[in-house]
Amino acid sequence: MTRDVFFQSLRNDIIKYLMLPLWRYTGASYLLPFLWYYTAADLLIPWLWKYSGLAFIAAKATASENKENHPTLPLWICGIYCALFGLATQHYENLLDRYENRLNTYITQLDTQRQTAMFQLLIDLQRYALPVEPDFWHPIRTMKSLITDPQPIADTPSHQNKVSSIASIIVSYKHDLGCHQKTLNELWRESPIFEEKINSFNITDATKCRFVSLGQAILVGVSMNFANLEGVALFDSDLTKASLHSANLIKTMLAQSNLYGADLRGSFLYKANLAGANLFGANLKFVKGLDCASLQRARNWQLSYRDKDLACGASIPVNTHPPEYDTPDTFFELILTDDIGWIFEEPDLLTKP
């Protein structure tokens, strides 16, 4: 069967078994798209057969003595692209293997005496440079992965899961990062009166405890409720929408950090450094140890949600869309567990008889 006879037979079959039944049972209005498709197919199929390289392959497979010349440019383009995709994939996998090896090495040493150094190395790994992952069905992305310089994974949307996984590793040690080794539960148990509890906080001398640096960490949206971050350096860190409810932030270095939308309710901020920190939309309700002098060193402190005693001469914004925080059934609620300690939703009531 020649090629012309084949296409003529295909055309007749389409008319007989497809077009005529549709015309008879569905109406003419539904046939217009099919008529257009049939006309386009009648013109495109022979053109694609010839210029896509399929005709050349068929000639080689069925009749080696066929001397008719067929275009082969699409076959060359496809072959070259497959080779470039293989190079891009190999380049990406090599850099990815180095990243994963470093990550595994740092994780295995987190429980050793080098723990403090490993945290900083993990943070540095959040800015490890990787190329865009190549995708066979996205040629532009594949070429970009091959010819452009690797970019920090923190700046690449496709690698955000790697940044988040490192942040989750750091968060898993949230109770062991600070200088003070006592838990909040133990500290609150030391004295039955609220004022004595405040005074009983032994703000550790920085020269007598280890120094944990989490500077420039990317901890977006992490949950660090009740974390022990006393004396930890979190300068220039991204804590956007992080949850630090009732966290121990005594002497914590939060200078230049981004606390946009962060939940700091009930946190302990004695002698915390907030210089240049972004407090836009941060929830500072019921925080302890924060005064106007420390608060006003931060940026956008007027746009934070805070108690009246921290108004500091500026109006307090009204949260028209409050987050879905847990609301206690009473004005004063105490919760005691072995791990998280006491939660004081209304600490002022502690001074009342």
Q: Quaternary arrangement of the chains shown?
A: single chain
Biggest pleated sheet = 2 strands, antiparallel
The total count of strands amounts to 4
- Which sequence of SSEs, written as H and E, runs from N to C? HHHHHEHEHHHEHE
Q: Return the CATH class of the largest domain.
A: Mainly Beta
Task: Note the overall shape.
Answer: elongated
Strand residue content: under 5%
Radius of gyration: 33 Å
Order of strands, widest sheet: 1-2
CATH topology type of the largest domain: Pectate Lyase C-like
Low-confidence stretches: 188-201, 203-207, 320-353
Assigned CATH architecture of the largest domain:
3 Solenoid
CATH superfamily of the largest domain: E3 ubiquitin-protein ligase SopA
Can you offer a commentary on this structure?
With 353 residues, this protein is mainly alpha-helical. It has three domains: 3-62, no CATH class; 73-171; 174-353, E3 ubiquitin-protein ligase SopA (Pectate Lyase C-like), CATH 2.160.20.80. 39% of the residues lie in helices and 2% in strands. It has ten helices and four strands, in the order αααααβαβαααβαβ. The protein has helices spanning 3-26, 31-51, 54-62, 73-108, 115-125, 139-147, 160-171, 184-189, 194-199, 292-295, and strands at 129-130, 151-152, 283-284, 305-306. The strands form two sheets. A two-stranded antiparallel sheet has the order 1-2. Helix 10 (292-295) links the parallel strand 3 and strand 4. The longest helix is centred in the N-terminal third of the chain and has 36 residues, at 73-108. It is elongated.
